[in-house]
Sequence to fold (137 residues):
Amino acid sequence: MNADTRRVAEDFVKENVALIRDLPNKQLTQIEAEVIAAIERGERAGALSKIIRARSGVAKKRADLIVRDQMGKAVSQLNQKRQQDLGVDRYIWRIAGDERVRPEHAERNGQTFSWSDSLSDGHPASRLIAGAPRSRC
Fold:
């Protein structure tokens, strides 16, 4: 992660962790730091969930939800930033194919979108379109 993408991650995490209103400020600050560090290390959500449970005392289900939400959003924004920096302005919407996929997201599967498109529920973590420059996104 370079300085520019780290700044994007830090800003995103700070803004979004503040939305978790049921935890004290000290715990929110710790979660911010842990999410950023986990992204830099390339850790999976399960490892971060354990850390959050240990630091905050929240239940496993709640910690898993926080981690899945925060890491997913952060990774999506970082992918967008990296791709735009490379000149990639379009992506193909891909779904995970699991039971949590929303119907409106399933309908978009395989469609090409532009980062400049205004989507009511935002842009997903995405893949580069065929023929576009490749990156380590």
Residues 89-137 form one domain. The helical segments are 3-17, 25-41, 45-56, 60-85, 103-108. The radius of gyration is 16 Å.
